[in-house]
Amino acid sequence: MIGSSLRPVVGRVADPLVNRLQAWGVTPDAVTATGTLGVVAASLGLFPRGHLFVGTLVISFFVLTDTLDGALARKRGTTSRFGAWLDSTCDRVADGAIFGGLALWFAGERDDDAMVAVTLLVLVASFVTSYAKARAEGLGLTCDVGIAERPERLIIVLVTAGFVGLGVSVVLLEAGLWLLAVLSVVTVAQRTREVRRQTSGAA
């Protein structure tokens, strides 16, 4: 998966910043909350108004903090179950803001009901994808399968939105969202099949 392959590289690049945050006494939870607030503000403040390129830059900057909170927690030796819960919960809030902001843009400036529906489908499917894994793990199962997880979704939507913000045809973003819709539904199906496989024959 893209996320697991890029995380070590991003971690090495971000290590000096993690050291600086530790020296300043910044907590991992503060990093998580700040990053989420930044994504929400940019998504709902810039995307609906059509500022796709600037919005993408700001969102991408704050999304990168997702790699800092965990690294900072490990550096400080303060990893906790609450921190893990907060990180996952804030990820859902950020995703909702990103796709919600695009849905508002399609509903307003673009007046495109079909793309509003596709964007919301991606949003709902992304939530179901995450919930399916969390629920499976709560039942003592594993559910790491899936063609499109959060890093893949973010890369596709932010890259296509950014290019459209630079003047590329909106068809690129529409194609990206249609692709995400298909990949997200397939991922939900893959996780459903995996849980079914692990529970088949169980009492």
CATH topology: Four Helix Bundle (Hemerythrin (Met), subunit A)
Class by alpha and beta content: mainly alpha
CATH class: Mainly Alpha
Order of helices and strands, N to C? HHHHHHHH
With helices defined by DSSP (H or I, 4 residues minimum), what is the helix count? 8
Low-confidence stretches: none
Instruction: Give the radius of gyration.
Output: 18 Å
Strand tally is: 0
Helix fraction bin: over 70%
Give the amount of beta strand, in percent.
Answer: under 5%
State the end-to-end distance.
33 Å
Give the overall silhouette. Answer: flat
Largest sheet: none
Classified in CATH, the superfamily is CDP-alcohol phosphotransferase transmembrane (TM) domain
What is the architecture at the second tier of CATH? Answer: Up-down Bundle
Mean pLDDT: 89
Number of domains: 1
What does this structure look like?
The longest helix is centred in the C-terminal third of the chain and has 29 residues, at 171-199. The chain is mainly α. The radius of gyration is 18 Å and the shape is flat. The chain contains eight helices and no strands. Helices cover 80% and strands 0% of the residues. The protein starts with a helix and ends with a helix. It has a single domain, classed as CDP-alcohol phosphotransferase transmembrane (TM) domain (Four Helix Bundle (Hemerythrin (Met), subunit A), Up-down Bundle), CATH 1.20.120.1760. The mean pLDDT is 89.
